Amino acid sequence: MDRRSLPPLVFLIISTFPLYASAFKCGSSPVKCQALIDHITPESTTFVEVQTLFAVRNLRTLLGANNLPRSSPPDQKLPAKQTLKIPFPCLCHRGAGISNKRPVYTVKEGDDGLKEIAERVFSGAVTDGAIAAANGISVKDPVKVGQNLSITLPCSCDDVEGMKVVHYGHLAESWSSLEAIADRYGVSVPILMEVNGLKDGSSIRGGQLIDVPIRACNSSIRSDSIDSQLLVANGTYVFTAHNCVQCKCDSANNGRYSASRRELDHRTGRLALRCNVAKGTMPYY
Protein backbone atom coordinates (compact mmCIF):
# COMPACT_ATOMS: atom_id res chain seq x y z
CA MET A 1 0.00 0.00 0.00
CA ASP A 2 1.33 3.47 -0.82
CA ARG A 3 0.12 6.94 0.08
CA ARG A 4 -1.68 7.41 -3.22
CA SER A 5 -4.03 4.53 -2.37
CA LEU A 6 -4.81 5.72 1.16
CA PRO A 7 -8.08 7.51 1.94
CA PRO A 8 -7.67 11.22 2.82
CA LEU A 9 -8.24 10.69 6.55
CA VAL A 10 -5.51 8.04 6.83
CA PHE A 11 -3.10 10.20 4.82
CA LEU A 12 -3.81 13.07 7.21
CA ILE A 13 -3.03 10.85 10.21
CA ILE A 14 0.32 9.81 8.70
CA SER A 15 1.24 13.35 7.71
CA THR A 16 0.59 14.85 11.13
CA PHE A 17 2.84 12.46 13.04
CA PRO A 18 6.37 13.72 13.71
CA LEU A 19 8.74 12.28 11.14
CA TYR A 20 11.69 12.09 13.48
CA ALA A 21 12.30 11.47 17.15
CA SER A 22 14.12 14.79 17.30
CA ALA A 23 14.19 17.83 15.03
CA PHE A 24 17.66 17.44 13.52
CA LYS A 25 18.33 20.40 11.25
CA CYS A 26 19.88 20.12 7.80
CA GLY A 27 20.71 22.57 5.05
CA SER A 28 18.43 22.76 2.03
CA SER A 29 21.03 21.44 -0.43
CA PRO A 30 21.41 17.63 -0.80
CA VAL A 31 24.45 16.49 1.22
CA LYS A 32 25.67 13.09 2.38
CA CYS A 33 27.79 12.42 5.46
CA GLN A 34 28.41 9.94 8.25
CA ALA A 35 26.45 10.24 11.49
CA LEU A 36 26.12 8.44 14.83
CA ILE A 37 23.12 7.46 16.92
CA ASP A 38 22.62 5.64 20.22
CA HIS A 39 21.27 2.11 20.42
CA ILE A 40 20.38 0.53 23.76
CA THR A 41 20.33 -3.25 23.47
CA PRO A 42 16.85 -4.47 24.54
CA GLU A 43 18.21 -7.91 25.43
CA SER A 44 21.45 -9.88 25.42
CA THR A 45 22.99 -9.81 21.95
CA THR A 46 26.32 -9.79 20.07
CA PHE A 47 28.30 -7.30 18.03
CA VAL A 48 27.43 -9.06 14.78
CA GLU A 49 23.71 -9.02 15.58
CA VAL A 50 23.83 -5.26 16.20
CA GLN A 51 25.87 -4.84 13.01
CA THR A 52 23.21 -6.77 11.07
CA LEU A 53 20.29 -4.89 12.64
CA PHE A 54 21.64 -1.53 11.49
CA ALA A 55 23.26 -2.77 8.25
CA VAL A 56 26.69 -1.50 9.32
CA ARG A 57 28.95 -2.58 6.49
CA ASN A 58 31.73 -4.09 8.57
CA LEU A 59 32.41 -4.86 12.21
CA ARG A 60 35.43 -2.55 12.44
CA THR A 61 33.21 0.43 11.61
CA LEU A 62 30.99 -0.39 14.59
CA LEU A 63 33.96 -1.02 16.89
CA GLY A 64 35.67 2.19 15.78
CA ALA A 65 32.57 4.29 16.47
CA ASN A 66 32.71 3.05 20.07
CA ASN A 67 36.52 3.15 20.36
CA LEU A 68 36.55 -0.56 21.21
CA PRO A 69 39.49 -2.90 20.54
CA ARG A 70 39.56 -3.91 16.89
CA SER A 71 40.26 -7.48 18.03
CA SER A 72 36.78 -7.74 19.61
CA PRO A 73 35.16 -10.93 18.22
CA PRO A 74 31.89 -10.64 16.27
CA ASP A 75 30.13 -13.09 18.60
CA GLN A 76 31.15 -11.31 21.81
CA LYS A 77 28.19 -11.25 24.18
CA LEU A 78 26.68 -7.88 25.01
CA PRO A 79 24.34 -7.52 28.00
CA ALA A 80 20.88 -6.03 27.83
CA LYS A 81 20.71 -2.24 28.27
CA GLN A 82 24.20 -1.63 26.91
CA THR A 83 24.52 1.58 24.90
CA LEU A 84 26.40 1.54 21.60
CA LYS A 85 27.00 4.30 19.08
CA ILE A 86 25.77 3.23 15.65
CA PRO A 87 27.54 4.71 12.59
CA PHE A 88 25.33 5.21 9.55
CA PRO A 89 25.15 7.22 6.30
CA CYS A 90 23.05 10.39 6.52
CA LEU A 91 21.30 12.20 3.68
CA CYS A 92 20.29 15.84 4.13
CA HIS A 93 17.63 17.16 1.78
CA ARG A 94 15.10 20.00 1.99
CA GLY A 95 16.00 20.86 5.55
CA ALA A 96 15.70 17.34 7.01
CA GLY A 97 18.23 14.58 7.60
CA ILE A 98 17.52 10.84 7.60
CA SER A 99 19.54 7.65 7.27
CA ASN A 100 20.32 7.00 3.61
CA LYS A 101 18.42 3.86 2.49
CA ARG A 102 19.09 1.83 5.63
CA PRO A 103 18.50 0.06 7.90
CA VAL A 104 15.63 -2.16 6.81
CA TYR A 105 14.00 -4.10 9.63
CA THR A 106 12.29 -7.45 9.07
CA VAL A 107 9.35 -7.98 11.42
CA LYS A 108 9.83 -10.95 13.74
CA GLU A 109 7.56 -13.19 15.75
CA GLY A 110 6.45 -11.31 18.87
CA ASP A 111 6.76 -7.79 17.40
CA ASP A 112 3.61 -5.95 18.47
CA GLY A 113 3.14 -3.04 16.09
CA LEU A 114 5.18 -0.04 14.98
CA LYS A 115 5.23 1.65 18.38
CA GLU A 116 6.71 -1.42 20.05
CA ILE A 117 9.32 -1.79 17.29
CA ALA A 118 10.27 1.89 17.53
CA GLU A 119 10.57 1.88 21.32
CA ARG A 120 11.97 -1.59 22.03
CA VAL A 121 14.02 -2.54 18.98
CA PHE A 122 15.28 0.96 18.14
CA SER A 123 15.38 2.42 21.67
CA GLY A 124 12.99 5.26 20.82
CA ALA A 125 15.59 6.85 18.52
CA VAL A 126 12.92 6.74 15.80
CA THR A 127 9.16 7.17 16.22
CA ASP A 128 6.32 4.95 15.06
CA GLY A 129 5.14 7.93 12.99
CA ALA A 130 8.49 8.08 11.21
CA ILE A 131 8.38 4.38 10.40
CA ALA A 132 4.79 4.68 9.16
CA ALA A 133 5.59 7.68 6.96
CA ALA A 134 8.68 6.01 5.47
CA ASN A 135 6.67 2.93 4.52
CA GLY A 136 3.40 4.53 3.38
CA ILE A 137 1.30 2.94 6.12
CA SER A 138 -0.64 4.03 9.19
CA VAL A 139 0.76 3.75 12.71
CA LYS A 140 -2.29 1.62 13.50
CA ASP A 141 -1.73 -0.87 10.69
CA PRO A 142 -0.84 -4.35 11.98
CA VAL A 143 2.59 -5.70 11.09
CA LYS A 144 3.23 -9.16 9.70
CA VAL A 145 6.12 -11.52 10.33
CA GLY A 146 8.57 -11.19 7.45
CA GLN A 147 7.39 -7.68 6.51
CA ASN A 148 10.27 -5.33 5.65
CA LEU A 149 10.20 -1.84 7.15
CA SER A 150 12.48 1.04 6.16
CA ILE A 151 13.80 2.77 9.28
CA THR A 152 14.61 6.48 8.95
CA LEU A 153 17.11 7.46 11.63
CA PRO A 154 17.33 11.23 12.23
CA CYS A 155 20.64 12.95 11.50
CA SER A 156 22.40 16.05 10.19
CA CYS A 157 25.41 16.97 8.05
CA ASP A 158 25.58 20.68 8.96
CA ASP A 159 28.74 22.40 10.14
CA VAL A 160 28.33 24.11 13.51
CA GLU A 161 29.75 27.61 13.93
CA GLY A 162 32.07 26.97 11.01
CA MET A 163 33.44 23.74 12.53
CA LYS A 164 33.44 20.29 10.96
CA VAL A 165 31.45 17.98 13.22
CA VAL A 166 29.89 14.53 13.29
CA HIS A 167 26.30 14.75 14.51
CA TYR A 168 25.58 12.19 17.22
CA GLY A 169 22.02 11.33 18.26
CA HIS A 170 22.43 10.82 22.01
CA LEU A 171 19.62 9.26 24.06
CA ALA A 172 19.63 11.22 27.30
CA GLU A 173 19.65 9.28 30.55
CA SER A 174 16.87 10.01 33.05
CA TRP A 175 19.31 11.73 35.40
CA SER A 176 21.17 13.68 32.72
CA SER A 177 21.23 17.39 31.91
CA LEU A 178 22.50 19.54 29.06
CA GLU A 179 25.42 20.59 31.26
CA ALA A 180 26.44 16.96 31.82
CA ILE A 181 26.10 16.11 28.11
CA ALA A 182 28.07 19.21 27.11
CA ASP A 183 30.87 18.38 29.55
CA ARG A 184 31.02 14.75 28.47
CA TYR A 185 31.30 15.45 24.74
CA GLY A 186 33.20 18.73 24.75
CA VAL A 187 30.34 20.89 23.47
CA SER A 188 29.05 24.13 24.94
CA VAL A 189 25.55 24.31 26.42
CA PRO A 190 24.55 27.25 24.16
CA ILE A 191 25.49 25.21 21.07
CA LEU A 192 23.46 22.23 22.30
CA MET A 193 20.48 24.47 22.94
CA GLU A 194 20.75 26.14 19.54
CA VAL A 195 21.24 22.93 17.55
CA ASN A 196 18.31 21.24 19.32
CA GLY A 197 16.01 24.27 19.36
CA LEU A 198 15.82 24.26 23.16
CA LYS A 199 14.92 27.34 25.17
CA ASP A 200 15.26 25.80 28.61
CA GLY A 201 18.31 23.65 29.35
CA SER A 202 16.57 21.93 32.24
CA SER A 203 13.69 20.64 30.11
CA ILE A 204 15.31 17.51 28.64
CA ARG A 205 13.87 14.16 29.68
CA GLY A 206 15.14 10.62 29.89
CA GLY A 207 15.08 8.94 26.49
CA GLN A 208 15.02 12.25 24.61
CA LEU A 209 17.21 12.21 21.50
CA ILE A 210 19.72 15.05 21.66
CA ASP A 211 21.75 16.16 18.64
CA VAL A 212 25.33 16.38 19.92
CA PRO A 213 27.74 17.87 17.35
CA ILE A 214 31.06 16.16 18.12
CA ARG A 215 34.19 17.89 16.87
CA ALA A 216 35.92 15.95 14.14
CA CYS A 217 39.18 15.53 12.28
CA ASN A 218 38.77 15.98 8.55
CA SER A 219 41.02 15.06 5.67
CA SER A 220 42.63 17.07 2.92
CA ILE A 221 42.79 14.03 0.63
CA ARG A 222 42.31 14.67 -3.09
CA SER A 223 38.69 14.94 -4.21
CA ASP A 224 39.05 11.93 -6.55
CA SER A 225 40.07 9.65 -3.67
CA ILE A 226 37.63 7.14 -2.18
CA ASP A 227 38.44 8.70 1.21
CA SER A 228 37.75 12.28 0.17
CA GLN A 229 35.73 14.30 2.71
CA LEU A 230 36.52 11.75 5.42
CA LEU A 231 35.42 12.88 8.88
CA VAL A 232 36.45 11.09 12.07
CA ALA A 233 34.63 12.04 15.27
CA ASN A 234 36.75 12.85 18.31
CA GLY A 235 37.33 9.70 20.37
CA THR A 236 36.66 7.29 17.50
CA TYR A 237 38.65 5.57 14.77
CA VAL A 238 37.98 4.34 11.24
CA PHE A 239 39.69 2.06 8.77
CA THR A 240 40.37 3.62 5.42
CA ALA A 241 42.48 3.12 2.26
CA HIS A 242 40.67 -0.11 1.40
CA ASN A 243 40.62 -1.12 5.07
CA CYS A 244 44.41 -0.94 5.31
CA VAL A 245 44.95 2.07 7.54
CA GLN A 246 43.50 2.76 10.96
CA CYS A 247 42.89 6.46 11.53
CA LYS A 248 41.97 7.83 14.91
CA CYS A 249 40.90 11.30 15.96
CA ASP A 250 41.86 12.09 19.53
CA SER A 251 41.99 15.43 21.27
CA ALA A 252 44.76 14.10 23.53
CA ASN A 253 46.82 13.77 20.34
CA ASN A 254 46.34 17.46 19.54
CA GLY A 255 43.76 16.51 16.96
CA ARG A 256 46.31 14.83 14.75
CA TYR A 257 45.05 12.20 12.39
CA SER A 258 47.21 9.17 13.17
CA ALA A 259 47.69 6.08 11.04
CA SER A 260 48.74 2.66 12.24
CA ARG A 261 49.18 -0.76 10.64
CA ARG A 262 46.65 -3.54 10.63
CA GLU A 263 47.76 -6.37 12.84
CA LEU A 264 46.56 -9.97 13.19
CA ASP A 265 43.15 -10.73 11.72
CA HIS A 266 41.28 -12.30 14.67
CA ARG A 267 38.80 -14.12 12.45
CA THR A 268 41.32 -16.14 10.43
CA GLY A 269 44.32 -16.16 12.75
CA ARG A 270 46.48 -15.16 9.79
CA LEU A 271 48.49 -12.04 9.24
CA ALA A 272 46.41 -9.57 7.29
CA LEU A 273 47.74 -7.01 4.83
CA ARG A 274 50.22 -4.64 6.48
CA CYS A 275 50.29 -1.05 5.38
CA ASN A 276 53.42 0.74 6.46
CA VAL A 277 52.09 4.26 6.59
CA ALA A 278 53.95 7.16 8.12
CA LYS A 279 51.94 9.19 10.59
CA GLY A 280 50.04 11.88 8.78
CA THR A 281 48.45 14.92 10.31
CA MET A 282 44.99 16.36 10.09
CA PRO A 283 43.82 19.62 11.61
CA TYR A 284 41.52 19.34 14.62
CA TYR A 285 38.34 21.38 14.32
From TrEMBL:
InterPro entries: LysM, LysM_dom_sf
Residue ranges constituting the LysM domain according to the UniProt record: 103-151, 168-212
Keywords: Signal
The organism's place on the tree of life at top rank: Eukaryota
Cross-referenced Gene3D superfamilies: LysM domain
Pfam families assigned: LysM
Signal peptide residues on this chain, from the entry's feature table: 1-23
CDD domains with a match to the protein in the record: LysM
PROSITE patterns found in the cross-reference section: LYSM
PANTHER family: LYSM DOMAIN-CONTAINING GPI-ANCHORED PROTEIN 2
Entry protein name: LysM domain-containing protein
Species name: Linum tenue
